[in-house]
Amino acid sequence: MHDYTYDGSFDGLLTVLLEMYERKTPPNSIQPADAAQGGLFTATVPIATSEEKAARVWQGLLKYMDKEARTRLYHVFLSERADREIIICRYVQLAVEAKGRVDISENYTNDSVRLVADIDKQMFREKHRMEAFVRFEKTQDELFHATIEPDFDVLPLIAPHFTKRYADQRWLIFDRRRGYGLYYDLHRTDIVQFEEKAPQRSTDMSATVLDEREPLFRLLWQTYFDHANIPERRNMKLHRRHIPLRYWRYLSEKQPRETRFQPIKNKTLTKDSSQLQ
Amino acid sequence: MNERIQEKLSILADAAKYDVSCSSSGGKRKNENKGLGNAEGMGICHSYTEDGRCVSLLKILLTNYCIFDCAYCVSRRSNDVKRAAFTVDEVVDLTMNFYRRNYIEGLFLSSGIFKDSDYTMERLVRIVKKLRTEHKFNGYIHVKTIPGASPELIAEAGLYADRLSVNIELPSELSLQNLAPEKNYKEILTPMKQIHQGIVQNKEEKALFKKVPAFAAAGQSTQLIVGASDENDHQILQLSDSLYKGYGLKRVYYSGYVPVTDDARLPQLTRPPVIREHRLYQSDWLIRFYGFQADEILDPQHPHLDLEIDPKLAWALRNRHVFPVDVQTADYEMILRVPGVGARSAKRIVAARRFAPLTLDHLHKFGVVLKRAKFFLTCRGQALDSREYDEQSLRRQILFGSGAVRSALVTQQLDLFAQAS
């Protein structure tokens, strides 16, 4: 048993998997070098990332699993769980033992398989939420920018969605927690790193750099949001289940109103309904 | 100018909110022209209002001026409300700018009837045409067809919209005559049929020719108001079933009646019938995704949905003779009928049992709700709860037994009943 360490990249982890089989030594743990804690009775083995080896492993995985299962492993990696490496490793070991003759991806009685399926589901949910909860603001130089803080590292997963959708506008989505973003320049989408610290929250972008009509559309959106609600059916528990509080910070419809909400008076109140007010 | 548009939006969003459809899925419109938007695949709810409903589309009326006087409608002619109307450009500008900021998946456009049906419908068509052709907008568009609009205008709307819908409004023609005297089933069902045929024909042409313009690719839906008239749940489900079968509808929406106007023909409610609405949706799901027939859920002897328990459990309690089923050997279809087993856990069960005999612990980890399911399942012939219960005690056991969690909705509404009496 070894304690493997690597550089924390996905390619690095794939390299570890190859080395592990070449050395015929299963891992006691696999950890990023900067976070590694050595075991008492095990040797710590640092593995240098090799793109070539990683590519071979990535291709080779298909001998033991289909593309969907392989993608799920990548999603587990992006989940940033502390035990993600060992979960991926166990799944691969299981698939290799089955020698590709049995498709283990549906063996939900196995804890590793179920765990991978469940994490994949969580990742999908977070990706889907980010596709919904990104709120762009337009700047004077016609850039649509948004700040998010997703629970997991989903930027790589949402890039195709936004690239297809907003093909005719420049946009930037910044993940504040992880300090990097996606930038689309009307031709392609790239990952961009930020040197200086980004604005604390999207609303801090000083009003001067925003497009002159930006405050108007924000106001109209808030107006729409307030008036689409049916007060007689108010159900805050359901509301918060759909939009958990941690996402409110970057949602423009959840920011304070400049003027108080004025309901449309469109019915004469009867005795019964006035009790509800 | 800005204040005016804000006021218009508040009036016309407020008037449109009783239309419950907010689906944005099932479209096939890709962004192939480097335009704005993409409506393929699954829908997205961009936000949720405080009543817990999804906000997916910019749902507005073009105007709330209306020549009709339907008793249940907030915009009825005789109601004293503020009136407003958008211009074509205002709707286009709002839609484009909301979409660019990722607020919405697209536009849901409906309208009160001003002047006459065709005049109104023609304006709706003008808006969607402009969005598609001048602004290369590929987001989702749902157009509500105006009752009595000409077939030519409906056909044209179908070229630009992803979904068309005609509201059936009430569960029987008699109620419709009573509450909406200017409307009738014929004027509703004729365009519904036309849209259905258009969609079917479009699919056939697509199979034959390469380039055929899409026609309402995301299908059509309808909505009916529950609790404004006295039809029972059995009648409502029979109607939905016939609409699904006869008109190929994608969805029937049920809108629990919210008292919006004073009218002697309408019931006085203290609260919209939200649980009943919820049970109807559950039944609708059983029909569309769980292989149930409408008359298995309710029949003339059992015309009302049980408000306390869900319709699948109610069915299982009435049909104890088909249970228990064994998780190791039963068909997928039968496992899906077990209370507490959803589609995901049913799939996991049939997939996983090829690898190992399933235990109670497995079922729990698959997400099966055991407090309901345990009375209806066996694992390798072993009953999970071996005591014998009759229907009533089983019902009590599930509702109030250990681990029973009452839906907040039910508790809330029953509390209100208690207060009222």
UniProtKB/TrEMBL annotation, chain A:
It comes from the Bacteria. Pfam families: DUF4130. InterPro entries: DNA_repair_put, DUF4130. This is TIGR03915 family putative DNA repair protein. Residues 83-253 form the DUF4130 domain. It comes from Hymenobacter qilianensis.
UniProtKB/TrEMBL annotation, chain B:
Its cofactor is [4Fe-4S] cluster. Residues 50-293 form the Radical SAM core domain. GO terms for molecular function: catalytic activity; iron-sulfur cluster binding; metal ion binding. InterPro entries: Aldolase_TIM, DNA_rSAM_put, Elp3/MiaA/NifB-like_rSAM, Endo/Exo/Phosphatase_dom_1, rSAM, rSAM_sf, RuvA_2-like. Transmembrane segments: none annotated. Coiled coil: none annotated. CDD domains: Radical_SAM. Keywords: Iron, Iron-sulfur, Metal-binding, S-adenosyl-L-methionine. The keyword S-adenosyl-L-methionine applies. Pfam families: Radical_SAM (PF04055). The keyword Repressor does not apply. This is Putative DNA modification/repair radical SAM protein.
